[in-house]
Amino acid sequence: MKYGTYDFEVPTASYWSQQFTMAGYNLTDYTARFTVRAHLDSSVLLALTKNNGITLANGSFTITITSAQATAMGIGEFVYDFEITDTSGHPTSLMQGTITVSNRTNK
Predict the structure, then answer these.
(1) What is the DSSP track for 67-96?
(2) What is the CATH number of the domain that holds 82?
(3) Is residue 107 part of a domain?
């Protein structure tokens, strides 16, 4: 997986989880941070870390947003960035983009 922009839609009050493949990378000893904000310069709305919404594995990682977290963010379009840090402490930005929290059609 190359660094890039990826946009996601999460229905409000819904559990959302996405797995990404990074063939050839063992991420199990890395740390990670996924941060969501209303705008680039605003305060953090959601912060996920390894074992707290982020699972790192050999060749993949998974980001999970719970229904409570999606509800707490509110309906709207938000920006995020995702960064991993290797065992030497060197951070690498992997992705950024928007998360749109949308109304559910079924209640």
Answers:
(1) HHHHHHH-SEEEEEEEEEE-TTS-EEEEEE
(2) 2.60.40.10
(3) no
